[in-house]
Amino acid sequence: MMPLAHLPRPRGRSARPARRVGARALPIHAPLLACLLALAPLAHAQDPAAPLLHPLFQDHAVLQRDRPLRLHGDAPAGATVHVELAGHRAQVRADASGRWQAALPPLSAGGPHTLTVRAGTTTRTVRDLLVGDVWLCSGQSNMELQLWRSLDARAEIANADDPEIRLLTVPQAGSPVPLARFPQPAAWQRATPETARDFSAACFYFARELRKTVDVPMGLINASWGGSRIQAWTSGDALRAGGHAGEDLDVLALYAADPVRAAARWGERWGAWWAQAPGVAAGDRPWDGTAHGDWHEAPRDLGAWERWGVPDLAAFDGMLWYRSTATLTAEQAAQDATLVLGPADEMDVTWVNGTAVGSTYGAGTPRAYPLPRGLLRAGDNTVVVNVLDTYREGGLAGPASAHRLQLADGSAVPLDGGWRYRVVPPETGTPPRAPWQSAAGLSTLYNGMIAPLAGTALRGVLWYQGESNTAEPDAYAGLLRGLRDDWRTRFGDPQLPFLVVQLANYGAQADVPGDSGWPALREVQRRVAAEPHGGLAVTIDIGERDDIHPPNKQALGLRLARAARHVVYGEALAPSGPVPRSARREGGAVVVTFDDVEGGLVAYGAPGPVAFELCGAEPGSCRWAQATLDGHRVRLQAPDVPAPVRVRHAWADNPLVNLFDRAGLPAGPFEIEIR
Predict the structure, then answer these.
(1) Global pTM?
(2) Which residues contact 31 (CB under 8 A, 6 or more apart)?
């Protein structure tokens, strides 16, 4: 797979670690949907055996210091709930739906404390509670990446023993509706070699570094999912308010009530995209079995198309159409049925007899799509699957027996028509994603992983995401601001610190200036992080050419902690390395002046900085600039650009950066106008 945003070339989204630990993509089909919808009202249960406390409040948890303590849970409707913590008491009554909430006075850092909650004859006692700073660490797989995959992992794990760092991993779950509780069990744990091993390395190293200067307990909540797009982490209300995907959100609302109808409606939406995509001939509807294009016989057992021995597919990232048939009797066609397919790497949209029946994101996830009654017919029934793959190997998995129609009487009818395939040219572009998909959908991860945390008092948020959105850097500015503001509202803090990890260097190095979604998205991250109560961790020098998951998460943790010390704790230090203040003309040169320089600028390995460009007003006019250091300034000249209007630095997927300050922090990527 490759970043969903990128079809033409191998650039990645942090989508699939080498070992997919904890990165399961969960399809939401009718049985699972029923389960998820059943979970939504759990916080309003009226069962006399209600759990009293939300799962956030359990042994070894950390509560945010110096903030009113808001505790909540479930009890029988109308029950009186008694709460006691650290000598403070409260008495509240559960409402008609069984929901209760109690507020206790703020506590300073410390502990351990014991929390007792009682309603009627039911008592819950929570022990070993600490009070300190609580951080939410979220994003895609570079945030998810575990300690065991970081540098020097064996030694780091052996030394990951700090009883005042507590860890909570939010279970991975997508949902079409906001959930009040985690759909799977979650537990706070003390940081030990055993518990830290599979925890987020970036999040853990951040807290370990921060505790060197902020000596309070740290509670770390890791809510991350490999390959996720920012749209999946943003609430539906915020997406609508930002003008994003209103029609698709309507489909998602329909999906929550009727997945089968929603799938058919999504097929119409997808078909409309296909009809206007570049290179698609008029009347070309592959899901209807039309004869457009070249269809070829596929290997019987399918599998990754890179292994088929077809030269044009050996390194292909993009879309293939697959087509097969199942032959039914009239009696079989009259039954309720489910189409069962093996895993599709990484996303499919599937039709039966010309009607869309499902779409799922997830490379390792088998598909199971309930079919609307009356869709099947006696004789041949056509199954058409469009598979999108964007990184490494892709395709519809085998063996042939993995694909079948499962009938209500318990029998199965194989897709025995053989498989044929058709390659979609890359210029056709990137298709829309079904809004209910887990990591690639709309609000799905917010609903399943962030909504259950709503109202939690936090010290700040660490956000490491963007690889899956590099094809839409212009839209990402609004999306990132929308998510940040949305979460500030959901967590009840309009000034909630929001620390952004800028995308690391990755991929082939460029020998001429050019344009790409990666540096453009980094610029968006830089600008949004510079807004009030924001911070940036620059990683342009600690990435890997051939690995979208750089293992040096220790350096990242240090830089995140440094940003937090400045933004959150008010320390007078440069938070993220040299940042450009201005670019002005001086004689025949352009001079860039930097702020936040600690100890002076230095260019390593060359007489001067090597990653600067001067650009004219026209696209494609950027040229490498000769750069010399002048105190906190860099003087630039590019004879081939007679009238430069802007300066770019480190503007490439994997730029060669050698401009640092004496604190060892790099000057990150940027683009600024010349004044």
Answers:
(1) 0.90
(2) none
